[in-house]
């Protein structure tokens, strides 16, 4: 099994591409053993010394280190990922808990446009960097977004939010969107 490794804009995170499906759909993030209970893969990765977070997407795995150097940690991560895929076990078990979204009913048309812009113009680019971004809410002209994987804690995440996503949303919805905040 050949697993490609890519750097991300976040120096603490590497993106691993196993060349096969990781999740059928959606994403999953775990930053500790309790959050990883639903994912045998995330649980095994978090047991490695130095691993501080795991993000699973349909076609990649992002691993965030909290300690050590990638030159020592990368081979251990590759070993766990290879062993996991050879086992044939599912990456995720049980049902996920969907996060609550918040917005006023009268804003539903604006929210649908925001979600479509995020889905078609933002998520593909963010996934290319080893992360994900999800809509959390909309209130008083402010869009609230959650950042996952390599994007969570990335030094450039504020620039991505403020200069990239906020400008995009203000361009398409100038009367409705006043700002973007990370949840």
| SS summary, helix count | 4
At the fourth level of CATH, the homologous superfamily of the largest domain is Scaffold protein Nfu/NifU, N-terminal domain
Radius of gyration: 17 Å
**Helix share bin:** 25-40%
> How would you sum up the major sheet?
5 strands, antiparallel
List unreliable stretches of 5+ residues: none
Number of domains: 2
CATH class category of the largest domain: Alpha Beta
Strand order of the largest sheet: 1-2-5-4-3
Element pattern in H and E = EEEHEEHHEEHE
> Can you give the mean pLDDT?
87
Care to give the gist of this entry?
With 183 residues, the chain is α+β, with helices and mostly antiparallel strands. It folds into 2 domains: 4-87, Ribosomal Protein S8, Chain: A, domain 1 (2-Layer Sandwich); 105-182, GMP Synthetase, Chain A, domain 3 (2-Layer Sandwich), CATH 3.30.300.130. It contains 4 helices and 8 strands; from the N terminus they run E-E-E-H-E-E-H-H-E-E-H-E.
What does this structure look like?
There is one protein chain. The protein is α+β, with helices and mostly antiparallel strands and 183 residues long. The chain has 2 domains: 4-87, Ribosomal Protein S8, Chain: A, domain 1 (2-Layer Sandwich), CATH 3.30.1370; 105-182, Fe-S cluster assembly (FSCA) (GMP Synthetase, Chain A, domain 3, 2-Layer Sandwich). 34% of the residues lie in helices and 24% in strands. The protein contains 4 helices and 8 strands, in the order βββαββααββαβ. It has helices at residues 40-46, 70-87, 108-128, 157-172; strands at residues 4-7, 13-17, 28-30, 51-56, 61-65, 131-139, 142-149, 179-182. The strands form 2 sheets. A 5-stranded antiparallel beta sheet has the order 1-2-5-4-3, covered by helices on one side. A 3-stranded mixed beta sheet has the order 6-7-8. α1 (40-46) packs antiparallel against α2 (70-87). It starts with a strand and ends with a strand. The mean pLDDT is 87.
């Amino acid at each position: 099994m050949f697993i490609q490794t890519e750097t991300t804009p976040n120096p603490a995170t590497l993106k691993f591409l196993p060349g096969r499906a990781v999740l059928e759909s959606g994403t999953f993030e775990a930053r500790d053993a309790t959050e990883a209970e639903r994912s045998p893969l995330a649980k095994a990765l978090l047991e490695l010394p130095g691993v501080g977070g795991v993000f699973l997407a349909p076609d990649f795995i992002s691993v965030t280190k909290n300690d050590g150097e990638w030159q020592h940690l990368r081979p251990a991560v590759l070993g766990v990922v290879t062993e996991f895929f050879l086992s044939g076990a599912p990456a995720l078990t049980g049902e996920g808990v969907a996060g609550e979204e918040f917005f006023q009913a009268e804003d539903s048309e604006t929210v649908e446009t925001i979600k479509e812009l995020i889905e078609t113009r933002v998520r593909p680019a963010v996934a290319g960097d080893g992360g994900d971004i999800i809509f959390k809410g909309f209130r008083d002209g402010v869009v609230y977004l959650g950042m996952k994987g390599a994007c969570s804690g990335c030094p450039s995440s504020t620039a991505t939010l403020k200069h990239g996503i906020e400008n995009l949303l203000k361009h398409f919805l100038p009367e409705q969107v006043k700002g973007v905040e990370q949840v």
